[in-house]
Amino acid sequence: MALLPPSFVAALVSGLLVLWYVYSTLNAYLALRHFKGPWSSGFSRLWLLRANLGGRMNHEFRAVNDKYGKTARVGPQTLLTTDVALIKRMNGTRSDYRRSVWYNALRLHPTRDNITSHRDEQVHSRLRAQMTQGYSGKDVPDLEKDIDRCIEDFFALINRTYVSSEAEYVPFDLARLATFFSLDVISTVAFGKSFGFLDLNDDPFGYLPQLQTLLPAIIFFGVYPEIQKIMRLSWMQALLPKATDVNGVGRVMGFAKDVVAERFGEEKVVRRDMLGSFLKNGLTQDQLESETLTQVAAGSDSTATVIRMAIFLIASNPSVYNKVLEELDVAEAAGKLTRPVIRDSESRLLPYFQACVRETLRCYPPVTGQLAKQSPANGDHFNGMYIPPNTQIAWNSWGLMRTKEIFGDDVDVFRPERWLASGGHTPEELAHMEETVWMAFGWGRFGCLGRPVAQMEINKTIPELLMEYNFQIADPSNPFSVKCVGFFIHTDMFFRVSKRIRRESRTAT
Ligand code: HEM
Ligand SMILES: *[C@@H]1O[C@H](CO)[C@@H](O)[C@H](O)[C@H]1NC(C)=O
Ligand SMILES: *[C@@H]1O[C@H](CO)[C@@H](O)[C@H](O)[C@H]1NC(C)=O
Ligand SMILES: *[C@@H]1O[C@H](CO)[C@@H](O)[C@H](O)[C@H]1NC(C)=O
Ligand SMILES: *[C@@H]1O[C@H](CO)[C@@H](O)[C@H](O)[C@H]1NC(C)=O
């Protein structure tokens, strides 16, 4: 080496690096060249980064699949799909798909995984099995009562603060209040202690603003997982939320740590809630701490999105609004609704309302991206196409729910009638629509564990809101702000709310 001048060595090394880069880029390009997509996506992740961080990920993704087909290329090793058959296939045991590196981004904690981020399928499915009972509500006898209590807290807050009168308009921000509500519900059913956002009518430790900055960080790391490794450096860890923080997500971590600690030791608290169920099924104190936080992160914004969008979509479509109120009034007059809070079992029997729920999930699936799975180590053949090993396959739920061949040509219209037997679809088509819309909760072994809790919240809260109050969009020219970063960040969704005067004695038929 002594014979070679240093500048020559440097040139040689950089030359080799460039060659290696060109070779691997070309390789990646060629491997997926039979899938069409935005031109730059064959050799760069910039398209994906821009789509992720631009705040319009749902629209960008939809446009790609509309233009390039059900499965399109969006990055050097990444496909994006709206293909129901492919989504189902990825769940099969024989196909051996697993979570891709994208899921590492859900691991905010530098060293510790939790159920949403585990990529080892064996570890993941064991954890799922230990937690299913708690999540399904089977181990939580007071689930419904707990939700009732939160609904009453919610309405008490609206009654005392947000009811407008002829003389006074009080802006009611449903974006913010639905999040408060869902945070109080999840803390109550998960560990028997409400965060108390509704009581305070405030976010005293800045949880919402911090979440709104963390979510974009998560999707950034989803595109560039290698950068996340830097986060393991100790100076970077100082930037992450931690349990000793007095504010934001860290404060919630601290809260979680405390409620978990109460379940251990001499004077331990024993409760039949989700935490109690996980404990009974063998989760350790460490695991419980991270899973508690996961429940809060996974279970609050998603449900809040459905609640606020259902009210918004119904309130902005007069014929729908009238019809759903009619159904509720008739059922109430016939004594078919428990007061003060409708039972889940009663809500199921309201066909038009349930059609509104499906239509809301279709128009506004709360979790949009990317949730990329990874193809098996020896690749896969699907539909006559070869998917090379370790290809990331992201889903596009917004596009999926707007597939014309499944839902009809009017996919952009909010039309609950499409879900009724009389809505113009054959029973077979309806069955396929049903199967597809519930994919909003994911699919099979990758699907949402909290679905029973979420659906119970939805089944009870939305009809009660509609029956108790009139909702009038405060500014139709600018109804709300939205940023889609995988989840939706909704802000400033103002309504004028007034108490509803029930129509006089209807006769039940
Ligand atoms: C309408 C509301 C909700 C929707 C649309 C929804 C949707 C989803 C989706 C799409 C996934 C990911 C599937 C994948 O990785 O491919 C997921 C996972 C998950 N959700 Fe939900 N979710 C909702 C509410 C909730 C609630 C209320 C909870 C908690 C009580 C919850 C807990 C979870 C958990 C723990 C996972 C991870 C499951 C696993 O890793 O195996 N979700 N959800
Ligand atoms: C809110 O006000 C309505 C009508 O005045 C009343 O029926 C309802 O019980 C109140 N709800 C709560 C939780 O205070
Ligand atoms: C677990 O995953 C969620 C994402 O769903 C993340 O927000 C949270 O910080 C993670 N918790 C820990 C302790 O790693
Ligand atoms: C997912 O795959 C498993 C294993 O093949 C199967 O038992 C399960 O029914 C599938 N789930 C769905 C929703 O298709
Ligand atoms: C909520 O209503 C739906 C009907 O669309 C029903 O399938 C579901 O069982 C109900 N409740 C829960 C907790 O899922």
Provide structural commentary.
Keywords: Heme, Iron, Metal-binding, Monooxygenase, Oxidoreductase. Heme binds at residue 448. The chain has 509 residues and is an alpha+beta fold. The protein has one domain (41-508): Cytochrome P450 (Cytochrome p450, Orthogonal Bundle), CATH 1.10.630.10. The chain has helices spanning 6-31, 46-53, 57-68, 84-91, 121-136, 143-162, 174-191, 197-200, 207-223, 225-228, 234-237, 248-261, 274-280, 285-315, 318-333, 344-347, 351-363, 397-400, 404-407, 427-437, 451-468; strands at 71-75, 78-81, 98-99, 172-173, 373-374, 380-382, 385-387, 392-395, 469-473, 481-485, 487-491, 494-499. It has a 5-stranded mixed sheet, with helices on both faces. Helix 6 packs parallel to helix 21 (451-468), helix 7 runs antiparallel to helix 14 and helix 14 packs parallel to helix 21 (451-468). The longest helix has 31 residues, at 285-315. The termini are far apart. One 2-acetamido-2-deoxy-beta-D-glucopyranose is lined by residues 344, 347-348, 354, 452, 455-456, 459. The site of protoporphyrin IX containing FE has 25 residues, from helix 5, helix 14 and helix 21.
